[in-house]
Structures are given as structure tokens and as C-alpha cells.
Amino acid sequence: MLDNFLIDKHVLAALEEDIGFGDITTDNLVKDGDVLIAKLNTRSDGILCGTKVFERVFRLLSEKVNITFYNKDGDKIYAGDTVALIEGPADAVLKGERTALNYIQRMSGIATETRKYQDKIGDYKAKISDTRKTTPNFRIFEKYSVFIGGACVHRFNLADCSMIKDNHIKLAGSITNAVQMIRKNISHTHKIEVECDTIEQVREAVECGADLCWIICLLKK
């Protein structure tokens, strides 16, 4: 799900943002040949996610950085665990540490929160699903984290699936009109989903041939 090409493109932009014109602290302290050994520890229980991205940050700075992981994505980790050992040129380790941590901390946080809600479902067959309400330019990593957390990944972008919402229904005049108009112009490989507010809308969506539909529920304590 996470291809090196997509990872590297994103990580290089992140490193450029963070390093800027140079790390004026590291560049003036580190000498050629200096080596650093560091441990990645966790301060809280959770689900690990983002190991591949974490590694690519350092490898893009220096192929001489070696990382040994003691856990893999999806593993349950506990406060105090050592997740990885990092060893390599001091300048690469120091310049990459914050960016690498930003990725793995955010991704592990999302995976951990996702798993919490999925576990709450217990023996029921329902599955948590994500949305497109993602951080701009971070979607691939956030959706991967949701997947690692045990939930279902919904459409990745607007081209994946046609999802008819309230504004589309207003423009088309009805759910039936919206489904018919879209069905005439999309590929047979695409599905049509309808976001419903009422049971009546669910019935209309089913009757007019929508592939998927769901209803917004407001839960009260």
C-alpha cells in the first residue's frame, strides 16, 4: 500500500521543509566520521505504524544509516518498549530524527485511535471506515494508518467512487435523478454510493439502483 516512490517524494519535501538551507547546529558540531547510536522508545501503549516511512527518512539522507526494528506495523507496543535501534553517520541521524518521528508518531497515533474504536465494536460485524477528511498531502499515510489500525479504507479520492451527498441531491432534484445522470457517464467499474439522511432516502437509493448507501445516525447518550 505504501510504495517507495510515493514515500520518497513526500519525505524529500518534508526534509527540504525542515532542513531548509542547512542544519546550522549539526553542520557546525559534527565532524566527518562521527557516528550516533539512538533508540526509538515508546512512552505509551499503542499500535505501531509507519516503520517504512521512518526508515526512508534516514536512508534518503544516508544509505549508511542502519535501522533494526523490534516490532512491525500493526504490532501492539507498550510504554517503555524499544521499537528500533538506529546507527549511522551523526549528521544524517540528527537531521532526520524529527521528521522521522513526526511520521511514525502521527501514523501510530492514528492506528492506535482506530484500533480503539474497532475493538469497541466487539463481536458485531460492523467495521470502522475512514473518510476524505485528511490532512492535505498526508492522505496516503493517514489511510494506511487506518488500515493498520484494523478499519476499512473508503475511497482514496474523488475519482475512486461516486458518492452522492445532500448538495448533489439538491442539484439533481432527487436521488433517483442523480443516480441516473451519473450512471450514464461513468465506467462500469465504478460504484455509486448515496449518503442518506432518512430511511425514505435509503429506500429510494436502493430502488433506483445505487450500489451502496448509508444513513447518518446521531447517537444520544
How many β-strands, per DSSP?
Answer: 8
- Oligomer kind: single chain
Give the strand order of the largest sheet, numbering strands 1, 2, ... along the chain.
1-5-3
Average of pLDDT? 94
Biggest beta-sheet profile: 3 strands, antiparallel
Structural class: alpha/beta
What fraction of residues sit in β-strands? 15-25%
* Overall body shape: elongated
How far apart are the termini? Answer: 38 Å
Low-confidence stretches: none
Radius of gyration: 23 Å
Order of helices and strands: HHEEHEEEHHEHHEHE
- With helices defined by DSSP (H or I, 4 residues minimum), what is the helix count? 8
Helicity level: 40-55%
Written overview of the protein:
By secondary structure, the protein is an alpha/beta fold. 44% of the residues lie in helices and 16% in strands. It has helices spanning 4-19, 26-29, 51-61, 90-120, 139-148, 166-172, 175-183, 199-207; strands spanning 35-41, 46-47, 66-69, 76-77, 82-89, 162-164, 192-196, 212-215. The strands form three sheets. Strands 1-5-3 form a three-stranded antiparallel beta sheet. A three-stranded parallel beta sheet has the order 6-7-8. The chain has a two-stranded antiparallel sheet with strand order 2-4. α8 links the parallel β7 (192-196) and β8. It is elongated. The model has no long low-confidence stretch (mean pLDDT 94).
